[in-house]
Amino acid sequence: MTHQTPHVVIVGGGFGGLAAAKALRKTPAKVILIDRTNHHLFQPLLYQVATSVLTAGQIATPIRSILRNQKNTTVIMGEVTGVDKDQKCVIVSDADRQDVPIAYDYLILATGASHSYFGHNEFAEYAPGLKSLADAEAARNKILQAFELAEGEEDPSRHRDLLTFILVGAGPTGVEMAAALAIFVRNTLKSDFRRIDPASARIVLVDMAPRVLGPYSESLSKAAKQRLEKLGVEVRLGHSVDLIDAEGVVIAGERIASKTVIWTAGVSPSPAGKWLNAETDRAGRVRIQKDLSVPGHSEIFVVGDTASLDQNGKPLPGLAQVAIQGGRYAGRLIHNRIVGNHPPSPFSYFDKGTMAVVGKGFAVLQSGKVRISGFVAWLAWAAVHLQFLATSSLRLSVFLQWVWTYLTGQRGDRLIVSQHASEVMKPGLDTPVNATFASR
Ligand SMILES: Cc1cc2nc3c(=O)[nH]c(=O)nc-3n(C[C@H](O)[C@H](O)[C@H](O)COP(=O)(O)OP(=O)(O)OC[C@H]3O[C@@H](n4cnc5c(N)ncnc54)[C@H](O)[C@@H]3O)c2cc1C
C-alpha cells in the first residue's frame, strides 16, 4: 500500500531507531516508532544501575517525551513479531491486542541484540545478563541481597559463598562492572555492616579469551587487567565456564561457590533476519548494502546491532556510535527520497574511538593510533557519556551524582525493590520465599 503521505515505520527506540526518528523530524511523512518498552535506554551505563551508582531513571527516558515536539512522529509501545514484505506491514502485539498490522512505505529495523549463552541457555537461570533496565535492577537487588543475607547469617562458613560475585565475560561490560563492584564493596559499604566485612567479598572475572577487553590493544588490555587486580578483582582468563548452577560455577574443573553470577559475555542479534527471511552473517545479523538497505528491498533498512556491514574488510562493531550514525543515515536517505533530493553517498562509519572505565578515575581510550589509559581517559569517558545521554536533565542529574559519588563514595540507589516487605528473595531464585529468621 502506498500512502499519500508516506509512512515511515521505525522498529526500536534505542540508539539507531531514535537517531533515525530525529533525522526524519522535518520530513513530510508520518513517522511511527514502535518499541516494546516505553523508554530509550542508555545501555553503556547499565552497569552503574546494577552497582547502585545511578538510578534507573537516570539512564532511561520515555521515548515519547524525547520526541514530544516532533509533530510528525507517533510512538507506539508494542512488540513487533514479524514483517510482511509483500503487504508492506509490520505485525505488532501489545498487552491488549495481538498481531495488528501496521503499514509502511519505508521501514527501518533497529531492534538491537540480546544475550547469547553460546548454546548454554540453561545458564540463564543462574547467570542473568545485563541488557535491559529490568536486568540491571535484578542484578542490583541480587548483589545487595547477598550482603543482607550474609549479615543475617550466624554461620561464618556461609559468608564466603554469599559474598563471592562472579562475572562471566571480560569485555567492556564485565570489566566495568567488576571494577565498580570492587569499589562498592571496599568503599561504599565498608561501615554499614557489623557481622561481615564487605571488603572481604571476592569478585571474580572470568573469560575464555587470553586477555581482558579483547577489542582493545594489548597495552590497554594489560593496563586494565593491572588496574582490576589493584582493585582486588580476581581475573581468570583462558578458561571457558563448564557449568553454572545454583551453587556457583565450574571453570577448568574447579568449582567456585557463589550465589551471584552475572553473565556479561556474548550477544545475539534480534530476529530481524528471520522476519525478513534475509541473508544473515554467522551471528544472525542481517547483511545489508552500503546504503543500509536489505538486498532486493530498497524500502527496508536495518541499522545498529542487528545489522551486518563490512567496512575496510572488517564487520562494523556492535557499538552505540555505529547504531547512531546508521540510524541517522537511514533517516536522511529516506528524507531525501521523499523530498526528491539526491541520495547521500554510501554509508561510511566514522570511528570516534572506544573507551572503557575501570573504576574511579581510570579508563582506557583507543582512537585510531591513540591509546591512553588513566585519569585523562576517564575524564574523556565521563564527558562523552554525559554528552550522549538523551536529555539535558539527565546530563545534569548524572553529572551531579558522579561528582557526589567521586567525593563521598556514596551511591545513588541502594534499595532492594523486588520484594514484598515480609518476604526475601533467595539468591539464585526468582521466586520470593518467606523469611523465617525467628526459627533460627
Ligand atoms: C551493558 C552494555 C554496555 C554497553 N556499553 C557500550 C559502550 O560503552 N559503548 C558503546 O559504544 N556501546 C556499548 N554498548 C553497545 C550499545 O549499547 C549498542 O551497540 C547499541 O545499543 C545498539 O543500538 P541499537 O539501536 O542497534 O539497539 P538498542 O539500543 O539495543 O535498541 C534496540 C531497541 O529495540 C527495541 N526492540 C527490540 N526488539 C523489539 C521488538 N521485537 N519489538 C519492538 N521493539 C523491540 C528494544 O526495546 C530497544 O529499545 C553496550 C551494550 C550493553 C548491553
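^ flavin-adenine dinucleotide complex. The first strand starts at residue 7 and ends at 11. The chain has a mean pLDDT of 92.
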